[in-house]
């Protein structure tokens, strides 16, 4: 392997490019033809047919630059050809806008070309024909469609990345506000996807171009400084080059030595991270890449470099033994060069380098060279993440929520932890044992109760570090905790937790809806028909759900429980449907339903503390067992329980009396309930301890404490407590014990 000159490799993206082709050349198939040498003649003919079809479809259309629109598909296909994508991908790249911009149908593409090419084009097409309430919703749904198409066929995202790369390269003619919006979108979505798929070369260029259009003044200033520094440090680079060449020659080790210059954005990011005020403080804008023939030679070359220059402590990473999740492999080390300049080195083989720069695109490059085994490295490395997209989609119906989960998983940094059986797992930086549990299996995550890291018990929210050995402890009756959403870091964990909570809320809303409809039917003098599928009443339920606009009986009951449908209105329609089948109201039941209090076992909503998200205790009055209560069926909020003397509840009742239903406390309760109290205290030493001791003496718990900011400066102060009590009798005991406390002048329960 011959050594190459270092200085020839120090170029910024966009510099030292060949003269651009003329407009006529760029708009013709001849601009693409030189890049298709790896295809057969028959395949080139198919690509030419796709070009002709795209050229005819886009005839008369212009880009913002004034060029014929066809120059863009040709350029996108050219980038895909550099990645050695197959003939179907190149055809899709040429026609990727014909459905969206030219009105061509997918059926027409299938008939004229083939189903696979048509599927690729369809996966790249936005959902402009559908109606969305906001532009953000439309964008999120389009991303969702594209990412799911990508999970089925990776070529979709490769073509899309090529499309976005060319658009970013030619964005100079666009209005500044549009350019900023597209740059932000590219930085948030497309650049991280490129990084996640191992397309590091594309990732760096997309980041740099996004920075150029989002912060044009900062980009221009740093670009000028980098160009100046390149000339000033030429002698230093030549000296380092000579010393490296000499060291490897003495070790009789054949390597390729490449110099690389940090991108403008990476320099800007480093300045921000380290708080550097000027470019002159950045000392390591140059790095070096060493390519060897075999993996073992990477370690030998590392030893040569460590003998030449002193390594910096803690700045060595072995991604050959522990590859990144996207398949990246290299040795990283930072050495102190001449004049105390830090030098970054990456050591890898030619095959590792191809995967490092092209990521999953290396699959097609290797395939074209006949190295099928090596070709699958990048593909297999991303299989788990691509599968997680499908898993998240199955549990997330909201497009914005889906996009949020995907963004979480587009992490640039990873940690590597081990299972007790020594299996290595990659997780995002900041991941917790809950993330680890869901990465193993959703059942492990759902039933997780505790965790041990390196043999010691840790909280479930503890951050994991590389090298940790993690063991998850599960229990059959355990279930996900909503509080986990505040600290989990992976999209998979977040979507699984939310999915479980939504299913739980659906079931609770369904039970509540059935009780409320039964109660409303008593007013009509009728009993609720059987909900069994094989019962004759099933036809009535089907007609009722269709009339109400619900997907089915189950969804109708959920809608009633969640407050999206009014039980009284549904009950009147149900009564008419039952009357049409000859079922008449019972006179006695009708009288009892309208003028007497309903028996507690026949449909009234009973509270025992086990209710979930579908039943909420109002925060304005904080009802506790023993209080007289009633329930307000909020529109889509479920059942909200107020005390009967709550002023907020009274105003709601006057304005919307139809949405109130009967609510009762169960005889046996499953938990304690929060209530608010206020104390007027004499300020002094140990007052808080006295209050806490009194509450504990009354066998209650303090869940929250607050005081006014100026309390320490006053002789008296008000303290607000939230305390957990069993019922009103228990609350009375707590107030009685507090009144006997010397520091307490007055104490009362807070009510609106």
Automatic annotation (TrEMBL):
<dbReference type="Pfam" id="PF02824">
    <property type="entry name" value="TGS"/>
</dbReference>
<dbReference type="InterPro" id="IPR012676">
    <property type="entry name" value="TGS-like"/>
</dbReference>
<dbReference type="Pfam" id="PF13328">
    <property type="entry name" value="HD_4"/>
</dbReference>
<dbReference type="InterPro" id="IPR007685">
    <property type="entry name" value="RelA_SpoT"/>
</dbReference>
<dbReference type="Pfam" id="PF13291">
    <property type="entry name" value="ACT_4"/>
</dbReference>
<protein>
    <submittedName>
        <fullName>Bifunctional (P)ppGpp synthetase/guanosine-3',5'-bis(Diphosphate) 3'-pyrophosphohydrolase</fullName>
    </submittedName>
</protein>
<feature type="domain" description="ACT">
    <location>
        <begin position="676"/>
        <end position="752"/>
    </location>
</feature>
<dbReference type="InterPro" id="IPR002912">
    <property type="entry name" value="ACT_dom"/>
</dbReference>
<dbReference type="InterPro" id="IPR004811">
    <property type="entry name" value="RelA/Spo_fam"/>
</dbReference>
<dbReference type="InterPro" id="IPR004095">
    <property type="entry name" value="TGS"/>
</dbReference>
<dbReference type="InterPro" id="IPR006674">
    <property type="entry name" value="HD_domain"/>
</dbReference>
<comment type="function">
    <text>In eubacteria ppGpp (guanosine 3'-diphosphate 5'-diphosphate) is a mediator of the stringent response that coordinates a variety of cellular activities in response to changes in nutritional abundance.</text>
</comment>
<feature type="domain" description="TGS">
    <location>
        <begin position="413"/>
        <end position="474"/>
    </location>
</feature>
<comment type="similarity">
    <text>Belongs to the relA/spoT family.</text>
</comment>
<dbReference type="Pfam" id="PF04607">
    <property type="entry name" value="RelA_SpoT"/>
</dbReference>
<dbReference type="InterPro" id="IPR043519">
    <property type="entry name" value="NT_sf"/>
</dbReference>
<dbReference type="InterPro" id="IPR012675">
    <property type="entry name" value="Beta-grasp_dom_sf"/>
</dbReference>
<feature type="domain" description="HD">
    <location>
        <begin position="69"/>
        <end position="168"/>
    </location>
</feature>
<dbReference type="InterPro" id="IPR033655">
    <property type="entry name" value="TGS_RelA/SpoT"/>
</dbReference>
<dbReference type="InterPro" id="IPR045865">
    <property type="entry name" value="ACT-like_dom_sf"/>
</dbReference>
<dbReference type="InterPro" id="IPR003607">
    <property type="entry name" value="HD/PDEase_dom"/>
</dbReference>
């Amino acid at each position: 392997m011959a050594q190459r000159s270092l200085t020839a490799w120090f170029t910024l993206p966009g510099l030292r490019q060949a003269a651009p082709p003329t407009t006529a050349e760029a708009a013709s198939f001849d601009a693409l033809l030189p890049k298709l040498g790896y295809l057969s003649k028959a395949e080139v003919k198919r690509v030419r047919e796709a070009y002709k079809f795209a050229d005819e479809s886009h005839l008369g259309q212009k880009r913002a630059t004034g060029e014929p629109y066809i120059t863009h598909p040709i350029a996108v296909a050219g980038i895909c050809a550099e990645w050695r994508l197959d003939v179907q991908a190149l055809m899709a790249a040429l026609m990727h806008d014909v459905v969206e911009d030219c009105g061509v149908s997918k059926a027409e593409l299938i008939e004229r070309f083939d189903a696979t090419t048509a599927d690729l084009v369809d996966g790249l097409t936005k959902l402009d024909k559908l109606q969305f309430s906001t532009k953000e919703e439309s964008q999120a749904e389009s991303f969702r469609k594209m990412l799911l198409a990508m999970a089925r066929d990776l070529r979709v995202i490769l073509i899309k990345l090529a499309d976005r790369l060319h658009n970013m390269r030619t964005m100079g003619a666009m209005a500044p506000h549009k350019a900023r919006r597209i740059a932000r979108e590219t930085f948030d979505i497309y650049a991280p996807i490129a990084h996640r798929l191992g397309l590091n070369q594309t990732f760096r260029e997309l980041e740099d171009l996004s920075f150029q259009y989002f912060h044009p003044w900062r980009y221009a200033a740093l670009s000028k400084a980098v160009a100046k520094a390149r000339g000033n440090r030429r002698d230093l680079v030549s000296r380092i080059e000579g010393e490296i060449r000499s060291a490897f020659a003495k070790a009789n080790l054949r390597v390729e030595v490449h110099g690389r210059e940090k991108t403008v954005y990476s320099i800007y990011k480093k300045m921000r991270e380290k708080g550097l005020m000027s470019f002159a403080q950045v000392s390591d804008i140059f790095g070096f890449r060493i390519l060897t023939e075999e993996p073992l030679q990477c370690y030998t070359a590392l030893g040569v470099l460590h003998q030449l220059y002193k390594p910096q402590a803690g700045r060595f990473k072995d991604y050959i033994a522990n590859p990144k999740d996207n398949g990246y492999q290299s040795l990283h080390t930072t050495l102190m060069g001449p004049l105390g300049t830090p030098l970054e080195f990456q050591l890898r083989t030619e095959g590792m380098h191809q995967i490092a720069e092209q990521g999953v695109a290396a699959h097609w490059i290797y395939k074209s060279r006949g190295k099928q085994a090596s070709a699958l490295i990048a593909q297999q490395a991303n299989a788990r993440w691509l599968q997680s997209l499908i898993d998240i989609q199955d549990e997330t119906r909201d497009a914005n929520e889906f996009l949020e989960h995907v963004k979480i998983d587009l992490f640039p940094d990873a940690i590597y932890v081990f299972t007790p059986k020594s299996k290595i797992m990659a997780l995002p930086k900041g991941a917790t044992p809950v993330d680890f549990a869901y990465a193993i299996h959703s059942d492990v995550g759902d039933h997780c109760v505790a965790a041990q890291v390196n043999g010691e018990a840790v909280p479930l929210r503890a951050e994991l570090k590389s090298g940790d050995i993690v063991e998850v402890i599960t229990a059959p009756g355990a279930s996900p905790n909503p509080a986990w959403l505040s600290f989990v870091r992976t999209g998979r964990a977040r979507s699984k937790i939310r999915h479980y909570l939504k299913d739980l809320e659906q079931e609770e809303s369904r039970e509540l809806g059935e009780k409320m409809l039964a109660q409303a039917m008593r007013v009509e003098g009728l009993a609720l028909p059987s909900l069994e599928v094989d019962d004759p009443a099933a036809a009535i339920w089907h007609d009722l759900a269709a009339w109400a606009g619900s997907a089915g009986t189950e969804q109708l009951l959920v809608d009633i429980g969640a407050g999206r449908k009014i039980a009284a209105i549904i009950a009147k329609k149900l009564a008419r449907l039952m009357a049409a089948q000859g079922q008449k109201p019972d006179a006695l039941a009708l009288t009892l339903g309208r003028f007497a209090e309903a028996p507690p076992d026949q449909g009234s909503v009973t509270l025992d503390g086990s209710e979930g998200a579908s039943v909420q205790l109002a925060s304005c009055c904080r009802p506790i067992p023993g209080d007289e209560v009633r329930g307000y069926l909020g529109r889509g909020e479920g059942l909200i329980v107020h005390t009967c003397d709550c002023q907020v509840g009274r105003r709601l009742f006057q304005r919307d009396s139809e949405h109130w239903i009967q609510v009762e406390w169960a005889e046996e309760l499953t938990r304690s309930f929060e209530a608010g109290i206020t104390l007027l205290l004499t300020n002094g030493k140990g007052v808080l301890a006295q209050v806490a001791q009194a509450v504990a003496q009354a066998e209650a718990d303090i869940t929250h404490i607050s005081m006014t900011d100026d309390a320490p400066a006053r002789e008296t102060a008000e303290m607000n407590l939230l305390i957990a009590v069993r019922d009103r009798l228990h609350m009375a005991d707590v107030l009685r014990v507090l009144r006997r406390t010397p520091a307490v002048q007055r104490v009362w329960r807070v009510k609106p």
